[in-house]
Amino acid sequence: MIPDAITGLQCYQCNWIVPAEPFRYTCSKCGKNLDFIYDYEMILRSWSKADLAVDPEKSIWRYLPLLPVKSAPENRSLQVGGTPLVTFPDLAEEHGITDFLIKDDTRNPSGSLKDRASEVAIQHARQQGQEVMVAASTGNAGSSLAALTAFHGLESIIFVPASAPPAKLTQIQQYGAKLVAVDANYDTAFDLAFQWATENDHYSRNTGINPILAEGKKTAALEIAEQCDWQVPDHIFVPVGDGCIISGLYKGFFDLMALGWIDHLPRLHAVQAEGSAAIVNSLKRGGDIEAVQAQTIADSISVDLPRDGEKARRAILESGGLGLLVSDEDIIRAQKELSASTGIFAEPAAAAAYAGFQQASTRQLFQQDESVLVLITGTGLKDIPSARSSLGNLEVIKADMETIDNYLRAKTD
Asked: How sure is the predictor about 1, in pLDDT bands with cuts at 50, 70 and 90?
């Protein structure tokens, strides 16, 4: 059930070529992660930018020729993808650049970019004859899979650390998934979920280990390029935990370069929390990725050992990007400033990308003729307590006009 344009999968570690079928999660030689290989000339014979320009499909499925499934799902009315690219001329002027853009993936059905990966994984699972999907998550991947399996009529089992934000756990339960909250961290939940999926012959939606997921996430890159009329931004700031989002973006831009639809890669900057910095630490050291004991308010990027870390490093280095570290205080401050200046409410992990952009601007890393994009990956409604932490207690006043008048005058003084 693999498209003809896919010629196999290649291991990023040892370069071993794995046949496209039967599907396998990892390299059969060294056990590392895989990339799908496309025959770009075959794709170009039947698909063009002109075809895209007249395609009425608004979801990620407009890019079907560049996805590793034979067909799109019949019901696409719960639209995944097609999220807006929002421009902010005043912020561009403030930071001395030509354009400042936000790719707002809070608009996806479950409120996060993870819907892109889940949607493609569900279709792939169906074409593999699978009806039960298993995932480990700190919340977003789980709520994404739970939402979309509910829509498509599949069963999902979600392993999470019990410390995940209550709103995300509530989402998962509301969608009817089987929630397995373990008294351990994400890395342990990851191992347990993959073991359960393997032993019970279920489909694993674990980030990093399943190459389908980066293919779903790369649709954000395809949309960015198309929305920019194929003139990609000079810089893109990405929140990074496991590394799958930034490696997916790299793959999307790589595919477009191979098709000849864009002429350069944007610089992909990885932003990690100081308390979960395994990938950026490795860049600074120049050595292998070593596990950390992750501790950060940004739960979605809180990872001890990134499962797609090496592919993330490749994305950063080959695009000329940087690894940036931000503190939890930076993240919470950026979350509030982002909301107040753009109207976009981001969860802490997503706000980390904006904090990274602010740091880069302060360090004067941009040229005046450059364009910058910040990828916002999840809505702040998924973690209200973190957002409230910087706001203080809500003041309640008497319900009369004199008190209200005095209160508002004091606020403007």
From this structure: low
Give yes or no for a cis peptide into 22 (omega within 30° of 0): yes
User: Model confidence over 367-404: pLDDT tens digits?
Assistant: 999 999 999 999 999 999 999 888 888 899 999 999 99
H helix runs in 260-397, sequence order: 278-285, 309-319, 328-342, 348-362, 384-388
Give the model confidence (pLDDT) of 267-278 as tens digits. Answer: 999 999 999 999
CATH class given for the domain over 85-111+213-388: alpha beta
| Beta-ladder partners of 326 | 273
d(CA 329, CA 268): 23
Which is it for the CA torsion 344, 214, 242, 210, positive or negative?
positive
Domain positions in the chain are 1-46, 85-111+213-388
User: In the Cβ-directed half-sphere of 178, how many Cα atoms lie within 13 Å?
Assistant: 9
What residue has token string 């608009």? 107
Bond prior to 233 in cis (omega within 30° of 0): no
